Amino acid sequence: MSFQSFSLDPRILGGIVALGYTEPTPIQRRAIPTLLQGSDVVCVAQTGTGKTAAFLLPILERLINRPRGAVRALIIVPTCELAEQIHEAIGTLGRASGLRSATVYGGVGWQPQAKSLRQADVVVACPGRLLAHLEARTVKLTALEVLVLDEADRLFDMGFLPPIRRILGQLPTKRQTMLFSATMPDEVRRLASQALRNPISIEVGEVAPPATLSHTIYPVSHGRKTALLTEILRRTQRTSVIVFTRTKHRAKSLARELASTGHAAVSLQGNLSQAERRRALDGFRQGKFDVLVATDIAARGIDVATVSHVINYDAPDTADAYTHRVGRTGRATRTGEALTLVTDEDASLVRALERILGKPLERRRVEGFDVRSSTRNSHAPEERVDSRRGPTVRTGATSGRMKSLRARRQWA
């Protein structure tokens, strides 16, 4: 199947070529024909599978020959980063269509948003600021034809369901509605039953990390994490790397420490202004920074083709959070690596990930690096560095048995 088989407008096909798409991904092959027919859809798919184009192409096809001058499509997203990413995709895919899009989220000026809303055909919005614009009557949605709830499980996680329900109450009931989610908790299922009419369900793959990823854990003590991360970055052949931390303060301080050791590192966290966040992301996309240290605010909505590695400096709280984090690499058909620094407290997460993956996670140690103290352990197993995959253990008989015994004791 090719994109030509969808019988899209030639102006939209030109945008597909501009983005470098060659053939549809599985989710695009299944969702696009259904959405072109006007059906409501609930779609469950892994991150990085091409879902943005799966809903944008039918929207553009629907609107391209319709009257202009009113908001015809609304896409609700959990983060401003995801809003900007979708806005940029609309600009590329719909460049020849003349359709205009506007982004709506907090932390930026109100008046420029109000002006852009008056000219928009498609609005990509975070719920809180959109609701404020609706209440201020700076946007009208009476002509709305299409609603998309993107990253619905993340919208739930971030507490956005109450404002979304208030927004739904102000939308035309006669519309096409699409809900996309990586997971389907009960609250999201209830939202789907309220917002959609006789939806067609599409599920692509299991809710698990992409198959294009390799997964490795590095056991380490808390006090040695930063030194270990520095060694991994120094020894691993890579392009761009996203490092995840649990707190805003740690993201900021870790980025500074990495920068002081010669890495082109920048942080992305909630204490930054919107302009600072944009500069950090743009610099990362353009290659000015090759290490982005982020909190979970960046776990979704960042699509940077050059990301070769995701490193969990702090292990995530849940297996779902792990899936969303590591989905920033290995996107679509590209390969990537997910590395996680784990302490004794992370044993339950490791077991959960191994159940999802259906196999043990590979344990590695860095040659000559003592994970428990600041002095080198001369009795540590001898290791080598693979230029493609980073530090790995040289498995001699004695060191292999010791490593296996330690793993059983620590992760049982």
Given the C-alpha coordinates, what overall shape results? Answer: globular
Instruction: State the CATH architecture of the largest domain.
Output: 3-Layer(aba) Sandwich
Query: Which bin fits the share of residues in helices?
Result: 25-40%
Distance between the termini: 47 Å
Give average pLDDT, whole number: 84
- Portion in beta strands: 15-25%
Q: How many distinct helices?
A: 15
- CATH homologous superfamily name of the largest domain? P-loop containing nucleotide triphosphate hydrolases
What's the CATH class label of the largest domain?
Answer: Alpha Beta
CATH topology of the largest domain: Rossmann fold
Can you characterise this structure?
Helix 2 runs parallel beside helix 3 and helix 3 (51-63) packs across helix 4 (80-93). The chain is an alpha/beta fold and 412 residues long. Residues 374-412 have low confidence and may be disordered. The chain is built from 15 helices and 16 strands. 43% of the residues are buried. Helices cover 39% and strands 18% of the residues. The chain folds into 2 domains: 3-204, Rossmann fold; 213-407, P-loop containing nucleotide triphosphate hydrolases (Rossmann fold, 3-Layer(aba) Sandwich). Strands 3-4-2-5-6-1-7 form a 7-stranded parallel sheet. A 7-stranded parallel sheet has the order 10-11-9-12-13-8-14, sandwiched between helices.
